[in-house]
């Protein structure tokens, strides 16, 4: 039953159709395909949303895998223009016209008060020691390529050590040691460079992103190496028998479907070129293949590059003229009043960060690598709670957490409930559903990752404020889901979400930067503070 037949049936007043799983998949594919330029996308057999063939058994891993489909970003105005659609043209024009008018007024006010249109102190800070940062970042990215020989030699090579069987827990421990060692090396390197806070923030975030890529590549290939070894052992066992065992044949077919889900078969994908493509693709979840576009639209790339530069300029003006001056006066006006002053500027910076990251940079790299799945976010502005926001606003990180944290913990918790234990753990497993345990583990991991990244970037530990603020979201989420009077109030839940985001983001910024701004006359202590004394701001020096 096609989409047109469904619409005609509903219009005629006949009984509504039965929405089976195949019909839902058909409607979803029709909706996704209508949002993309069909002449631009090449629908090769790399879409894991397509149904399995009859001779391709569906395994548990295949059910839980994260799927990639050819999709466009819902706010990608450039893509809509290429399709000839102008549904949000007026909204985009209105938004940037208002932003431009406000910036002109802001620059004129700064000129009247200081004799210059643009504050240059932050620019000197951002671009100081740029060559050192670029070379270090290049070395950081190139160092992640150790994962290719790591996988080929230890897990799928002809002379791999027997004690490192990928199915054994020792292999997982060895992988964890390698990842932690790599992370410690680069965080230590960043701490010894004496960079100002802007360079440290960028390098810390890029280090965390590259670590997630390393972990996804190693974990996915270790799982595939386990399947490869199991398949080879079953095939050897089958060859020793006189008659073919049907159960063994079905197991081999299931493993073959996992090792070759689309066109290329594992371990033929273990090459430096395959990893380089994964490194450039705007995703944190490794797959053997991704849905691809047929060509690169260089006009689209140029527009995204221009958008990146333009949004960065707006971001710089907002930070230099609206954020830093309030932080410099925090000791005079107090923490709470500074937080109130920063609610508008921080919300603006947050929106600009979203657009420059997911609309400009991510879509630009997706076009350069012919990466067809551009669903980097969902309608997070309609979120009715923090759990929904965390799933929708940053889908690359959400997909990483879903595959490598949430799903494994949920399966482990579900399987461990069958094991008889006594004491607190047994009661906890009996009373806590696997989904709640997996959500708590995911929030715990995300909180640790955010706290470590901020501490490394700022060289300042504020007693785990960010960690506890994220962990406190768990009881808030459970309350919102279980309170009957609040669960049905969709508008109220959306209002409460936005009010919490607008207030608590500047509050966290103030808590982590409190004491970071000191008067010029004050003496700065420590090597990191000394590195920033050469770049004073208007009335203070940032001593992070």
Summed up, what is this model?
The protein is an all-alpha fold and 544 residues long.
Descriptive report:
With 544 residues, this protein is mainly α. The chain is 66% helix and 2% strand. It contains 25 helices and 4 strands. It has helices at residues 3-12, 21-34, 60-64, 77-82, 89-114, 121-127, 130-143, 147-154, 169-192, 197-239, 246-259, 272-280, 298-328, 330-333, 335-341, 343-368, 386-392, 395-416, 424-431, 434-458, 465-471, 473-482, 484-487, 490-513, 527-530, and strands at 41-42, 292-293, 517-519, 540-542. The strands form 2 sheets. It has a two-stranded antiparallel sheet with strand order 1-2. The chain has a two-stranded antiparallel ribbon with strand order 3-4. The radius of gyration is 26 Å and the shape is globular. It starts with a helix and ends with a strand. The relative contact order is 0.10. The model is unreliable at 1-64 and 518-544 (pLDDT under 50).
